[in-house]
Structures are given as structure tokens and as C-alpha cells.
Amino acid sequence: MSNWKLINQTIIYDGTFNGFLNIVFQCYSNKFLPQKIYDEKTYSPNFLDKTMYIDTDYTKSERVFNGINNNIGYEVLYNSFYAFLSDEKEKEMNILKYICEGFDIGPKINTMITVSYVYKVISMRRKALSECHKLKGLLRFIEVGENIFYAQVHPDNNIIEPLGQHFIRRLPSQNFIIHDKNRNLYFLYNGKDYTIVENQDIHIPEITLEEQKYQDLWKMFFKTIAIKERKNPRCQMQFMPKKYWKDLIENPYDV
Fold first, then answer.
1. What would the pLDDT profile of 121-168 be if each residue is shown by its tens digit?
2. Residue 128: how many CB atoms within 10 A of its CB?
3. The whole model's pTM is what?
4. Contact residues for 170 (Cβ-Cβ < 8 A; gap 6+)
5. How far apart are CA 182 and CA 135, in angstroms?
């Protein structure tokens, strides 16, 4: 990409992965790199910026998706998607360079760890996957209606979709809601299909009496098996960071 043109423009897009693939399409087709890339939901207009808005065209995003998979390899597609879920700043610029360079040199892009944007993409992918893996074991569903279960999470990364798909595989016939409270995103599954909605006030009913009984039993069990004299919050936080405690039914401080 050494001969690519660096344009004095800021690209704005809709914040979706398909929208980002349209940026890849435009940049690779015209051999240019923008100064910055922003999600339209987080961009604050600046009179110094020359902006270019790129619409999401699903035909183009599908071409890029298939092009990455067929010409660079599934691993690059996998790395790019999970890195995109990261909450890191400038993730789009790093992934853009990673994919465009991959189109030029092929699968060996993944061996070039000393290149800053390759290292950052792989690092972002690891962080997002690591948090997703932790929450698969930590997520606590509560019954809030007849055959409806709800769980709230406060993840650092935007991992609600892979997290929700994991629980679809685990609970294929169960209606459930996963709520990312940091981004006000809801993953809604009705036993057949799922959708993700954003910034909507969805009424969550009170927990059922049966659920309250199970919660009381769990809290009693948690306190009973604990050895008060061996309480070690620092050790607990090494295995389960304190930022996740607010989403637990039990409170580690209560033992």
C-alpha cells in the first residue's frame, strides 16, 4: 500500500460490519486511505473535517466478504470480524489496512505480526473473543415472564451477537433477551429467529415468584458453602473481574 494516496477526508459510515466492508470496497477500488473513519452514531461534527459518507450497499459488502474468504482466507475474515467488535479506538483504520494489504499479498498477512496494524487486529480479536468466552460462562438468565428469560451484561466490547448466537445453540427452543446495558442493545430471540435492536425502551417484566425462590435458594447455597475466614476478594477478582459482579445474582461481598 506504499503507493496508495492518503486523502484529506474523514469517512463516516453506519457503524455496521457491512457498512465497514463498503469502506473496504471504496478504498481498495480507488487505492486511497482516509485520514480517519467514524461511526455516524459517535461522530461529532468538526468544521476542520472534510467528510465523506459511504452508504451501505449489501451487494458490495457481500462481494468484499466473499473476496476476503476466497482470496485471503477464512482466518483473515474471522480476525477482521472479531476485531471489529472491539471497543478500541481507530479499529476501522487498522482493519482496513489489514484487509487491503491481505488482498495484495494473500494469507501470509497473518504472519506479519511485526507490522503494527496486523498486530493490533489480532490483539483486538483476542480481547473480544476472550471477553465473549468469559461471559458465556458468567451470563445469568432470570425468568421475567412465562417462558421468557432475561440477562443483562456490561461488556467492554460489542459482543452481544456472538454471545446471543452461542445461547441459541445452547437453548434453541427458549425465548430469551440479552441486554447490553453499556450500549443499550437488546438481543431478542423467540425460539426461531433473532434480532438486535438499539436504543429502545423495552419493558422488562418483574421476575416471577418461581424465579425469586430459585434466587433465594442460590444465595443461601452460595453463603453456606463459603468459608468466611478464607474470604479473599483479591483472588476472586483475578478469576472474575469486579466489573462483572453487578450482573451476578449472588454478591461476593455478602459471604
1. 999 999 999 999 999 988 999 999 888 999 999 999 999 999 999 999
2. 25
3. 0.87
4. none
5. 14
Measure the CA–CA gap between 24 and 189, rounded to whole angstroms. Answer: 31
> Closest Cα partner for 96 from 55, 151, 38?
38
> What letters, b where the CB count within 10 A reaches 16 and e where it falls short, cover 174-191?
ebbbbbbeeeebbbbbee
80, 121 Cβ separation under 8 angstroms: yes
**pLDDT tens for each residue of 157-187:** 999 999 999 999 999 999 999 999 999 999 9
Query: Nearest 5 degrees, angle CA 22-CA 161-CA 55?
Result: 20
Residue in the structure block whose three cell numbers are 447490553: 180
Query: Distance between CA 125 and CA 38 in Å, rounded?
Result: 19
Q: Report yes or no: 110 and 74 within 8 Å, Cβ to Cβ.
A: no
